[in-house]
């Protein structure tokens, strides 16, 4: 071929072909490079999204900050991952970080060193993977709701995951940094076109597709899906990291499944949208009396006795994180209604939100609480003083009557106030007289600790200086080891009872008309003094006297006048005897004096004094009033009947001799 032809051919055919081929090569290379980078960018953004979801799963299934830190370090082991941080704005240190050295830093400090306020707000708004700068890394900031976090060593609340990934693409097709190496490597691009396509597909597209298929399969519920990528390139290492995270997730899910299946606590999983049970454990089936297969798909309204609207509203509050503990009446298969406490929280299973609930039967606890309230109401309404104190001395309960009783001594305690900050020893010292304090401390508490209870009489010290008698019961309460941990006391004001008892004792021993001792008490006193005289050798004498012509007084002036005379006579005699002497009405108008330590001479002198005193006294009748008396000293070993017989004979002798006189009894 001639040179000119070759030149024209080359110029007109080959050169355009070469130029077209050259341009096509450039275009093909550029498009291939742009497509690979754009696909890489899209797949990397998808990977970042899935990694954020994996971090959320790790956060939801980690029970402690240590477990969460291990998972985050595994994420950070991928060379493509530049930074993984989990924290809470305004709550101190980071929850987890790819670099353990960052754990001591505050979330706000870390954010301020990496972003401006505008960039940080943009990240929070957009949430998904994005570029803040053209040459910067791929960033993502996502909020994790508080309801999925179960960290026992950290307070509840939402958390934020910050992910930063390396990027190997350029921002556009016509970037100088993209085309410059292509222009200088045009020949290489022509030869490398097919090879590069194969390399991109083999080492970039296929691994990314494998990652995408694995994540989609997991979202579809296939827990066995794995990338199974081999090699040591970045995507292969990323695939192995994802496989490791999926293994950790399966381990967590397996652990959760074991807890769900084997735990004795009643558990169920509810679909809040349909209002049906998705699954229940064996403990729930035993409690409700249904078979597990029967409960799966069962409407919650068949068990929960609240209205469907109230149940839906309660589920909505749980989903919004506004409430964690609910209280419902649940019907068993037998028809029995039980009160339950439901601890519920939202969980994500296969991309769908359910409510996981742990249920406690609190029927007996509620009944005990109601019984306790009723018991407290009874104690508060009781007129008796009721208190409870710890063994160490702190007063833990004082009922209304007790608070009203002690408010004089404890200004901080009122009948309406139930806040007690006083000590039991202080209450004893202030409110009881010393003898009652000693009895409680030395007798009451030791006896109660030894025998379980003690009852005795104590007293309350009134503000006016007087004492209010109390009948007090002290009961010791022991713990499981047998140690006394508390004392209870019930005290009752027995002032009225003692008054009645004293009145009964008085009526049993005194004459109702004259107020003197009656015949029974006087005779017992005489026998007692005779026994004492026999032991000691001291003398004892008696004086027996009665009114002269008392029948005439009754017949003439009436029985009322006679009663007045008897009462006045009793008062006159009482004024002239000693405190140790015993004056008793023996019967009718007869009176007997028992004179301990008095011989016959002394008895005669007293008899004469009484006779003269009565004779000179003015009575409420115009007639003179006189008495006749007989007296005697008890002989050695003389009994009461023998002594009375002698002195009675002396009285009759005094009457026979003219009345208004005292007559000594005959000697033994």
Describe this protein with a few key phrases.
single chain, 668 residues, alpha+beta, five-stranded antiparallel sheet, 20 helices, 19 strands, rod-shaped
The shape is rod-shaped
Overall mean pLDDT: 80
Sheet with the most strands: spatial strand order: 6-5-9-8-7
| Proportion of helical residues | 40-55%
Main sheet overview: 5 strands, antiparallel
What low-confidence regions span 5 or more consecutive residues with pLDDT below 50? 1-15, 171-176
Individual helix count: 20
Structural class by helix and strand composition: alpha+beta
Tell me what portion of residues adopts beta-strand conformation: 15-25%
User: How many extended strands?
Assistant: 19
Work out the radius of gyration: 54 Å
Can you describe this structure?
Mean pLDDT is 80; it is low at 1-15 and 171-176. The chain has 668 residues and is of the alpha+beta class. It has helices at residues 3-61, 65-76, 107-114, 117-126, 176-184, 186-219, 234-262, 282-288, 292-295, 308-319, 363-381, 400-406, 424-431, 434-451, 495-509, 519-536, 550-557, 559-575, 600-616, 640-656; strands spanning 81-87, 96-97, 138-144, 159-165, 266-271, 276-280, 325-331, 337-349, 352-361, 385-390, 395-398, 453-461, 467-478, 484-493, 540-547, 582-587, 590-596, 627-633, 662-664. A hairpin with an 8-residue loop joins strand 1 (81-87) and strand 2 (96-97). The protein contains 20 helices and 19 strands. The strands form four sheets. Strands 6-5-9-8-7 form a five-stranded antiparallel β-sheet. Strands 11-10-14-13-12 form a five-stranded antiparallel β-sheet. The protein has a five-stranded mixed β-sheet with strand order 16-17-15-18-19, sandwiched between helices. It starts with a helix and ends with a strand. Helix 1 packs across helix 5 (176-184).
């Amino acid at each position: 071929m001639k040179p000119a032809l070759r030149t024209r051919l080359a110029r007109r055919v080959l050169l355009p072909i070469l130029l077209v081929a050259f341009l096509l090569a450039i275009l093909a290379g550029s498009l291939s490079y742009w497509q690979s980078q754009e696909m890489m960018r899209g797949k990397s953004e998808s990977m970042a999204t899935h990694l954020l979801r994996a971090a959320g799963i790790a956060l939801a299934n980690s029970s402690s900050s240590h477990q969460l830190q291990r998972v985050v370090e595994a994420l950070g082991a991928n060379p493509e991952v530049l930074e993984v941080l989990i924290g809470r704005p305004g709550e101190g240190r980071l929850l987890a970080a790819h670099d353990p050295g960052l754990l001591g830093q505050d979330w706000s400090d870390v954010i301020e060193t990496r972003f401006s306020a505008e960039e940080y707000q943009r990240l929070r708004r957009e949430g998904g993977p994005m570029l803040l700068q053209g040459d910067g890394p791929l960033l993502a900031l996502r909020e994790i709701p508080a309801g999925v976090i179960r960290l026992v060593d950290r307070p509840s609340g939402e958390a934020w995951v910050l992910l930063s990934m390396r990027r190997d693409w350029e921002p556009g097709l016509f970037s100088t940094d993209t085309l410059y190496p292509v222009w200088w490597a045009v020949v290489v691009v022509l030869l490398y076109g097919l090879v590069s396509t194969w390399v991109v597909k083999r080492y970039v597209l296929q691994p990314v597709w494998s990652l995408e298929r694995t994540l989609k399969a997991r979202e579809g519920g296939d827990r066995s899906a794995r990338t199974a990528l081999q090699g040591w390139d970045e995507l292969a290492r990323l695939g192995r990291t994802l496989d490791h995270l999926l293994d950790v997730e399966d381990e967590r899910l397996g652990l959760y499944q074991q807890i769900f299946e084997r735990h004795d606590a009643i558990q169920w999983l509810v679909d809040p949208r349909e209002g049906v049970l998705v699954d229940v454990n064996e403990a729930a089936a035993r409690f409700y009396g249904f078979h597990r297969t029967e409960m799966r798909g069962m409407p919650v309204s068949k068990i929960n006795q609240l209205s469907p609207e109230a149940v839906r509203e309660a589920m909505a509050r749980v989903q919004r994180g506004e409430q964690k503990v609910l209280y419902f009446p649940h019907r068993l298969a037998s028809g029995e209604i039980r009160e339950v406490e439901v601890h519920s929280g939202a969980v994500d299973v296969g991309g769908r939100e359910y409510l996981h609930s742990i249920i406690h039967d609190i029927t007996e606890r509620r009944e005990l609480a109601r019984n306790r309230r009723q018991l407290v109401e009874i104690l508060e309404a009781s007129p008796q003083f009721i208190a409870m104190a710890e063994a160490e001395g702190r007063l833990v309960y004082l009922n209304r009557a007790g608070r009203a009783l002690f408010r004089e001594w404890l200004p901080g305690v009122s009948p309406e106030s139930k806040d007690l900050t006083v000590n039991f020893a202080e209450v004893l010292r202030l409110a009881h007289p010393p003898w009652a304090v000693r009895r409680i401390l030395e007798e009451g508490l030791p006896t109660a600790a030894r025998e379980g209870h003690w009852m005795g009489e104590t007293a309350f010290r009134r503000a006016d200086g007087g004492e209010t008698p109390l009948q007090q019961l002290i009961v010791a309460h022991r713990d499981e080891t047998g140690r006394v941990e508390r004392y209870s006391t019930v005290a009752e004001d027995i002032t009225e009872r003692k008054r009645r008892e004293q009145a009964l004792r008085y009526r049993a021993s005194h004459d109702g008309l004259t107020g003197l001792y009656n015949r029974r008490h006087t005779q017992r006193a005489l026998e007692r003094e005779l026994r004492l005289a026999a032991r000691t050798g001291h003398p004892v004498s008696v004086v027996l006297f009665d009114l002269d012509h008392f029948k005439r007084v009754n017949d003439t002036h009436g029985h009322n006048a006679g009663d007045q005379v008897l009462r006045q006579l009793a008062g006159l005699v009482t004024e002239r005897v000693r405190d140790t002497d015993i004056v008793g009405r023996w019967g009718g108008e007869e009176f007997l004096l028992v004179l301990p330590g008095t011989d016959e001479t002394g008895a005669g002198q007293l008899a004469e004094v009484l006779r003269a005193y009565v004779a000179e006294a003015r009575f409420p009748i115009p007639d003179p009033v006189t008495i006749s008396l007989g007296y005697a000293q008890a002989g050695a070993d003389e009994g009461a009947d023998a002594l009375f017989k002698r002195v009675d004979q002396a009285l009759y002798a005094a009457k026979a001799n003219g009345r208004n006189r005292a007559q000594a009894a005959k000697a033994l």
